[in-house]
Automatic annotation (TrEMBL):
It comes from Pseudonocardia halophobica. Belongs to the transketolase family. This is Transketolase. Residues 21-282 form the Transketolase N-terminal domain. Its cofactor is thiamine diphosphate. It comes from the Bacteria. InterPro entries: THDP-binding, Transketolase_N. Pfam families: Transketolase_N (PF00456). Keywords: Thiamine pyrophosphate. The keyword Phosphoprotein does not apply. One of its GO terms (molecular function) is magnesium ion binding.
Length: 288
């Protein structure tokens, strides 16, 4: 049953559960950030709604077995943007693949949760990330391999708007379209910010939606901090059977913590020691 087929009350309940999951993912990310005193917290807070829609326990889009992250029938979720690892760890903890207590080890020696995503260390981490522009090419190869084997699993690749600066991303986009890989979906986090500054000032990527369509993809653009809109976008994508799809998600860095949403130099966000507790309170609607 697709989300749009759910009765109104059931859909509203699902949205509420996923919104609650997104809040927990944000809390998990803040907990890990406080362990190290740093991290890509702004991105984790911004993309939490997207990850909740994929990993929300019992409600998520992904077909997976949390207790068996290498199950052959699983949908593959690739973290092309390895510096978003803190966000994916939080989602994997929410899904039950990573024990919640383990997030306290984030970035520590011998931890399975290094500060950049590494598939050799972390259950549920499909690829190692770091250098941008690799993920979609890997997704293309996975999609081809799964189709060749007759495996109905899907491949989702989370990448950033800054990653659209990389030529290898567009080479992979052409290859996916050429091979008609309907089992591949790109998920683009458009937060408008890169290490060197606002995305439009580094390299103009708009109009993003039209560019993907020109490359032969079915493109859907939504508010990435609106669970209802995300579900509707995935409903539309699920019906595509002849071409790859892209879900373009406009998100706000630091979402849910107002004093972080407005912070400058938010790519690698400085957070003072006393601000971690205030950030948790803000997520819970507690005023200080």
């Amino acid at each position: 049953m697709t989300t749009t087929a759910l009765p109104t009350t059931a859909r509203a309940a699902k949205i509420a559960r996923l919104e609650a999951a997104a809040t927990r993912i944000r809390h998990h990310a803040l907990t890990m950030g406080e362990v190290q005193g740093q991290g890509y917290i702004g991105q984790a807070l911004g993309v939490a709604d997207v990850l909740a829609v994929f990993y929300g326990r019992g409600d998520g889009e992904l077909r997976l077995r949390p207790e068996d992250p290498e199950w052959d029938g699983r949908d593959r979720f690739l973290l092309s943007i390895g510096h978003y690892a803190i966000a994916l760890y939080a989602a994997l903890a929410e899904a039950g693949t990573i024990p919640l207590a383990e997030i306290e080890t984030y970035g520590s020696d011998d931890s399975r949760l290094p500060m950049s995503g590494m598939a050799s260390y972390t259950p549920g981490m499909e690829i190692s990330g770091g250098s941008l522009g690799h993920g979609l090419g890997v997704a293309c190869g996975m999609g081809l391999g799964l189709r060749h084997r007759g495996n109905p699993a899907r491949v989702f690749n989370l990448l950033s708007d800054g990653e659209l600066d990389e030529g290898s991303t567009w080479e992979a986009a052409m290859a996916c379209a050429h091979h008609g890989l309907a089992n591949v979906t790109a998920v683009v986090d458009v937060n408008g910010l890169q290490a060197d500054g606002p995305t439009p000032g580094v390299l103009k990527t708009e109009p993003v939606t039209e560019k993907w369509r020109a490359f032969g993809w079915h493109a859907v653009r939504v508010d990435g901090n609106d669970v209802d809109a995300l579900l509707a976008g995935l409903d539309e994508i699920r019906d595509q059977t002849t071409s790859p799809s892209v879900l373009i998600c406009d998100t706000r860095t630091g979402r849910g913590v107002p004093f972080l949403e407005s912070r400058e130099k938010a790519h690698f966000m400085p957070v003072a020691e006393h601000e971690w507790a205030a950030a948790h309170d803000a997520l819970d609607g507690v005023q200080r």
